[in-house]
Protein backbone atom coordinates (compact mmCIF):
# COMPACT_ATOMS: atom_id res chain seq x y z
CA UNK A 1 0.00 0.00 0.00
CA UNK A 2 1.29 3.44 -0.96
CA UNK A 3 2.26 5.94 1.72
CA UNK A 4 0.73 9.40 1.79
CA UNK A 5 3.80 10.86 0.06
CA UNK A 6 3.66 8.22 -2.72
CA UNK A 7 0.01 8.89 -3.70
CA UNK A 8 -0.46 10.63 -7.02
CA UNK A 9 -3.10 13.27 -7.56
CA UNK A 10 -5.14 10.68 -9.50
CA UNK A 11 -4.83 8.23 -6.57
CA UNK A 12 -6.12 10.89 -4.22
CA UNK A 13 -9.09 11.68 -6.51
CA UNK A 14 -9.91 7.98 -6.86
CA UNK A 15 -9.69 7.44 -3.11
CA UNK A 16 -12.02 10.34 -2.42
CA UNK A 17 -14.53 9.34 -5.11
CA UNK A 18 -14.59 5.77 -3.78
CA UNK A 19 -15.60 7.05 -0.34
CA UNK A 20 -18.13 9.48 -1.86
CA UNK A 21 -19.77 6.61 -3.73
CA UNK A 22 -20.07 4.68 -0.48
CA UNK A 23 -21.77 7.70 1.06
CA UNK A 24 -24.48 7.83 -1.65
CA UNK A 25 -24.87 4.04 -1.42
CA UNK A 26 -25.26 4.25 2.38
CA UNK A 27 -27.88 7.00 2.14
CA UNK A 28 -29.89 4.92 -0.31
CA UNK A 29 -29.57 1.78 1.82
CA UNK A 30 -30.62 3.66 4.97
CA UNK A 31 -33.72 4.86 3.12
CA UNK A 32 -34.47 1.31 2.01
CA UNK A 33 -34.21 0.09 5.60
CA UNK A 34 -36.63 2.81 6.71
CA UNK A 35 -39.11 1.89 3.97
CA UNK A 36 -38.94 -1.76 5.08
CA UNK A 37 -39.26 -0.80 8.75
CA UNK A 38 -42.28 1.43 8.16
CA UNK A 39 -44.03 -1.33 6.22
CA UNK A 40 -43.29 -3.89 8.93
CA UNK A 41 -44.23 -1.81 11.97
CA UNK A 42 -47.73 -1.64 13.35
CA UNK A 43 -49.87 1.48 13.67
CA UNK A 44 -48.31 3.94 16.11
CA UNK A 45 -44.89 2.26 16.15
CA UNK A 46 -43.21 4.37 13.44
CA UNK A 47 -42.38 7.52 15.42
CA UNK A 48 -41.10 5.61 18.47
CA UNK A 49 -38.95 3.55 16.09
CA UNK A 50 -37.46 6.71 14.61
CA UNK A 51 -36.69 7.95 18.11
CA UNK A 52 -34.95 4.67 18.97
CA UNK A 53 -32.71 4.86 15.92
CA UNK A 54 -32.08 8.59 16.35
CA UNK A 55 -33.63 9.82 13.10
CA UNK A 56 -36.08 12.70 12.87
CA UNK A 57 -39.27 12.26 10.87
CA UNK A 58 -38.20 14.80 8.19
CA UNK A 59 -34.81 13.07 7.84
CA UNK A 60 -36.51 9.68 7.52
CA UNK A 61 -38.80 11.10 4.85
CA UNK A 62 -35.82 12.47 2.88
CA UNK A 63 -33.89 9.19 3.12
CA UNK A 64 -36.93 7.18 1.99
CA UNK A 65 -37.52 9.62 -0.87
CA UNK A 66 -33.92 9.10 -2.06
CA UNK A 67 -34.20 5.32 -1.72
CA UNK A 68 -37.46 5.29 -3.64
CA UNK A 69 -35.83 7.12 -6.56
CA UNK A 70 -32.32 5.65 -6.59
CA UNK A 71 -32.63 2.11 -5.13
CA UNK A 72 -32.60 0.58 -8.61
CA UNK A 73 -29.86 2.86 -9.91
CA UNK A 74 -27.13 0.62 -11.24
CA UNK A 75 -24.11 2.64 -10.13
CA UNK A 76 -24.25 4.62 -6.89
CA UNK A 77 -20.70 5.88 -7.41
CA UNK A 78 -22.08 8.10 -10.17
CA UNK A 79 -24.33 9.95 -7.70
CA UNK A 80 -23.59 12.97 -5.50
CA UNK A 81 -22.58 12.02 -1.94
CA UNK A 82 -24.92 14.61 -0.41
CA UNK A 83 -28.41 13.85 0.92
CA UNK A 84 -29.55 17.37 0.00
CA UNK A 85 -28.30 16.96 -3.56
CA UNK A 86 -29.94 13.55 -3.91
CA UNK A 87 -33.25 14.87 -2.55
CA UNK A 88 -33.13 17.75 -5.05
CA UNK A 89 -32.50 15.31 -7.90
CA UNK A 90 -35.63 13.30 -7.04
CA UNK A 91 -37.63 16.21 -8.51
CA UNK A 92 -35.97 15.88 -11.92
CA UNK A 93 -37.50 14.03 -14.84
CA UNK A 94 -36.14 10.45 -14.45
CA UNK A 95 -35.13 10.07 -18.11
CA UNK A 96 -33.30 13.40 -18.21
CA UNK A 97 -31.59 12.63 -14.91
CA UNK A 98 -30.45 9.18 -16.07
CA UNK A 99 -29.05 10.74 -19.24
CA UNK A 100 -27.27 13.47 -17.27
CA UNK A 101 -25.72 10.83 -15.00
CA UNK A 102 -24.64 8.78 -18.01
CA UNK A 103 -23.14 11.88 -19.65
CA UNK A 104 -21.29 12.83 -16.45
CA UNK A 105 -23.24 16.09 -16.07
CA UNK A 106 -24.46 14.76 -12.70
CA UNK A 107 -22.02 12.83 -10.55
CA UNK A 108 -20.03 12.84 -7.30
CA UNK A 109 -18.82 16.34 -8.15
CA UNK A 110 -22.37 17.73 -8.25
CA UNK A 111 -23.00 20.32 -5.55
CA UNK A 112 -26.30 20.84 -3.77
CA UNK A 113 -26.79 24.05 -5.74
CA UNK A 114 -25.97 22.26 -9.00
CA UNK A 115 -28.44 19.47 -8.18
CA UNK A 116 -31.18 21.99 -7.42
CA UNK A 117 -30.53 23.93 -10.62
CA UNK A 118 -30.57 20.73 -12.66
CA UNK A 119 -33.80 19.56 -11.00
CA UNK A 120 -35.44 22.93 -11.69
CA UNK A 121 -34.46 22.76 -15.35
CA UNK A 122 -35.30 19.06 -15.74
CA UNK A 123 -38.58 18.82 -13.86
CA UNK A 124 -41.35 16.76 -15.44
CA UNK A 125 -43.81 18.83 -17.48
CA UNK A 126 -46.75 20.21 -15.52
CA UNK A 127 -50.11 18.61 -16.05
CA UNK A 128 -53.15 20.58 -17.10
CA UNK A 129 -55.44 22.15 -14.52
CA UNK A 130 -58.20 19.89 -13.21
CA UNK A 131 -61.76 20.83 -14.03
CA UNK A 132 -63.34 23.31 -11.65
CA UNK A 133 -65.44 21.46 -9.07
CA UNK A 134 -69.13 22.08 -8.63
CA UNK A 135 -69.78 24.89 -6.17
CA UNK A 136 -72.30 24.09 -3.47
CA UNK A 137 -74.95 26.74 -2.92
CA UNK A 138 -76.92 27.60 0.18
CA UNK A 139 -79.92 25.48 -0.78
CA UNK A 140 -78.01 22.25 -0.09
CA UNK A 141 -77.69 23.11 3.60
CA UNK A 142 -81.34 22.67 4.44
CA UNK A 143 -82.86 25.62 6.24
CA UNK A 144 -79.55 26.88 7.65
CA UNK A 145 -79.39 30.61 7.03
CA UNK A 146 -77.18 31.78 9.85
CA UNK A 147 -73.49 32.65 9.89
CA UNK A 148 -72.46 29.12 10.74
CA UNK A 149 -74.07 27.82 7.55
CA UNK A 150 -72.23 30.46 5.52
CA UNK A 151 -68.93 29.38 7.13
CA UNK A 152 -69.66 25.73 6.40
CA UNK A 153 -70.46 26.52 2.76
CA UNK A 154 -67.31 28.61 2.40
CA UNK A 155 -65.21 25.79 3.87
CA UNK A 156 -66.80 23.17 1.62
CA UNK A 157 -66.33 25.33 -1.48
CA UNK A 158 -62.69 26.00 -0.56
CA UNK A 159 -62.06 22.29 -0.01
CA UNK A 160 -63.67 21.36 -3.33
CA UNK A 161 -62.20 24.27 -5.27
CA UNK A 162 -59.05 26.36 -4.71
CA UNK A 163 -57.64 24.27 -1.87
CA UNK A 164 -58.05 20.97 -3.73
CA UNK A 165 -56.67 22.46 -6.96
CA UNK A 166 -53.68 23.87 -5.10
CA UNK A 167 -53.05 20.52 -3.44
CA UNK A 168 -53.19 18.77 -6.81
CA UNK A 169 -50.74 21.28 -8.32
CA UNK A 170 -48.34 20.68 -5.43
CA UNK A 171 -48.75 16.91 -5.72
CA UNK A 172 -47.63 16.95 -9.37
CA UNK A 173 -44.06 17.59 -8.26
CA UNK A 174 -44.11 14.99 -5.47
CA UNK A 175 -42.86 11.46 -5.47
CA UNK A 176 -45.34 8.66 -4.83
CA UNK A 177 -44.07 8.35 -1.28
CA UNK A 178 -44.62 12.07 -0.66
CA UNK A 179 -48.15 11.83 -2.08
CA UNK A 180 -48.78 8.83 0.20
CA UNK A 181 -47.62 10.83 3.23
CA UNK A 182 -49.97 13.70 2.29
CA UNK A 183 -52.82 11.22 1.78
CA UNK A 184 -52.08 9.70 5.22
CA UNK A 185 -52.27 13.16 6.81
CA UNK A 186 -55.58 13.86 5.04
CA UNK A 187 -56.97 10.50 6.17
CA UNK A 188 -55.94 11.32 9.77
CA UNK A 189 -57.70 14.69 9.55
CA UNK A 190 -60.83 13.06 8.10
CA UNK A 191 -60.79 10.42 10.81
CA UNK A 192 -60.66 13.12 13.51
CA UNK A 193 -63.46 15.02 11.77
CA UNK A 194 -65.65 11.92 11.52
CA UNK A 195 -65.06 10.99 15.16
CA UNK A 196 -66.37 14.35 16.40
CA UNK A 197 -69.81 14.31 17.92
Overview of this protein structure:
- This protein is mainly alpha-helical.
- It folds into 2 domains: 4-121, no CATH class; 138-195.
- Helices cover 64% and strands 0% of the residues.
- It is built from 9 helices and no strands.
- The protein has helices spanning 9-40, 46-53, 57-70, 83-89, 94-103, 112-121, 147-160, 162-172, 176-195.
- α1 packs across α3, α4 (83-89) runs parallel beside α6 (112-121) and α7 packs parallel to α8.
- The chain is elongated and about 80 Å long.
- Mean pLDDT is 79; it is low at 140-144.
Which helices and strands, and how do they pair?
Blueprint (H helix, E strand, L loop, with lengths): L8 H32 L5 H8 L3 H14 L12 H7 L4 H10 L8 H10 L25 H14 L1 H11 L3 H20 L2
What general outline do the C-alpha atoms trace? Answer: elongated
How many strand elements? 0
Gyration radius, in Å: 23 Å
- Supply the helix-strand structural class: mainly alpha
Q: Determine the number of helices (DSSP H or I, runs of at least 4 residues).
A: 9
* The number of domains: 2
Major sheet size, sense and barrel closure: none
Question: What is the helix fraction of residues, given as a range?
Answer: 55-70%
What is the CA-CA span between the terminal residues?
A: 73 Å
What value does the average pLDDT take?
79
N-to-C order of helices and strands: HHHHHHHHH
- What fraction of the residues are assigned to beta strands by DSSP? under 5%
Report the uncertain regions: 140-144
Amino acid sequence: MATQAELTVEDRVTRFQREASRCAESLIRMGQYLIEDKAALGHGEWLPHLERIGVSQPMAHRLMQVAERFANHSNSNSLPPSLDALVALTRADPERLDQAIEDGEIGPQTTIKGAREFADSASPPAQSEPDEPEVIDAEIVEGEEDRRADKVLALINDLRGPWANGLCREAEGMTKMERDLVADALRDALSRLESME
